[in-house]
């Protein structure tokens, strides 16, 4: 539970953080505490990543314009977490994966607070739990050798594009003729989404258990020029301040951050990847949907 001072409006890095934003953060921090509790109980390692990692290293808390918490786990820890967590979470929290909730097609898990609203228009159309969320991404082993890595990444990209067009084409804002034909093929084959996703995940985990030089966050393969991260950066965790608590970060955080962001210690406002996300920390998503 955050103290009263936490909720006060403030200026961080010349950016105004409102009291409402603080309430959103408080929801996410409460979920972070639950994740930390479960991981401690089962000896599961996790790390802050992306903007959350920059915030921990540079600012001791949220980057002021960030709107979520990003965590990563090596695949073996991720699998242990998604198996153990559902039975240990309070009733208002929902752990989403492609296997636990209908129509949920993401290559990572999200923990959501059902008492709140945090969704895109696609989330709303898909019909699953749309509370404010924390992202949990698996880190998968990449094959050794530049050519083999590129080939594996291309295979993942093609399969994911195919699955997303099969099961998400109805939600696309911009549709192409090629996409329409691929979507029709998917409907003709009529493969259950969970079955198709399991095939995709087998490609993701092809090198699991092997001590490869690099790991990657498969979700962002197509969003970054430098998806390869050295496994050694995630060999150990160190805890750093994040708001009024400590959060684990990879001991090799400097290499991890420079690989993607370069000079990360200089604040630079970047747009959120969540686009037109609707966020309401005070209204349950089901109530929000009934009234809008």
Any descriptors?
globular, 292 residues, two-stranded antiparallel ribbon, 13 strands, alpha+beta, Beta Polymerase, domain 2, 39% helix, 9 helices
Short description:
With 292 residues, the protein is an alpha+beta fold. It is built from nine helices and 13 strands.
Q: What is the CATH topology of the largest domain?
A: Beta Polymerase, domain 2
Poorly predicted sequence stretches spanning 5 or more consecutive residues = none
> What is the correct CATH architecture of the largest domain?
2-Layer Sandwich
The tally of strands reads: 13
Q: What separation lies between the terminal Cα atoms?
A: 30 Å
Helix percentage range? 25-40%
The secondary-structure class comes to alpha+beta
Order of helices and strands: EEHEHEHEEEHEHHHEEEEHEH
Radius of gyration: 19 Å
Instruction: Choose one word for the global shape.
Output: globular
Task: Supply the number of structural domains.
Answer: 2
- Class of the largest domain, according to the CATH hierarchy? Alpha Beta
Biggest sheet statistics: 7 strands, mixed
List the quaternary state of the chains.
single chain
The averaged pLDDT comes out at: 94
Strand proportion: 15-25%
Number of helices: 9
């Amino acid at each position: 539970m955050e103290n009263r001072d936490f909720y006060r409006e403030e200026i961080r890095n010349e950016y105004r953080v409102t009291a409402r934003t603080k309430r959103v953060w408080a929801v996410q921090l409460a979920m972070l505490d639950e994740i930390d509790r479960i991981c401690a109980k089962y000896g599961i390692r996790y790390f802050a990543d992306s903007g959350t990692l920059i915030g921990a290293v540079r600012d001791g808390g949220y980057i002021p314009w960030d709107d979520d918490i990003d965590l990563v786990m090596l695949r073996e820890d991720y699998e242990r977490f998604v198996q153990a967590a559902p039975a240990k979470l309070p009733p208002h929290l929902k752990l989403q994966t492609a296997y636990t909730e209908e129509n949920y097609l993401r290559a990572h898990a999200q923990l959501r607070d059902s008492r709140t609203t945090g969704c895109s228009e696609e989330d709303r159309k898909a019909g699953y739990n749309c509370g404010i969320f924390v992202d949990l991404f698996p880190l998968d082993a990449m094959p050794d050798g530049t050519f083999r890595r590129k080939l594996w990444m291309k295979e993942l990209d093609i399969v994911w594009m195919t699955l997303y067009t099969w099961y998400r084409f109805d939600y696309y804002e911009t549709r192409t003729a090629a996409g329409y034909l691929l979507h029709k093929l998917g409907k003709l084959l009529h493969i259950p989404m969970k079955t198709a996703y399991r095939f995709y995940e087998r490609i993701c985990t092809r090198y699991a258990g092997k001590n490869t030089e690099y790991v990657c966050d498969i979700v962002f393969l197509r969003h970054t020029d430098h998806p390869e991260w050295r496994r050694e950066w995630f060999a150990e965790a160190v805890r750093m301040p994040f708001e009024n608590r400590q959060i684990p970060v990879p001991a090799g955080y400097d290499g991890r951050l420079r690989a993607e962001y370069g000079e990360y210690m200089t604040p630079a406002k970047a747009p959120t990847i969540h686009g037109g996300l609707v966020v309401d920390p005070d209204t349950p998503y089901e109530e929000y949907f009934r009234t809008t």
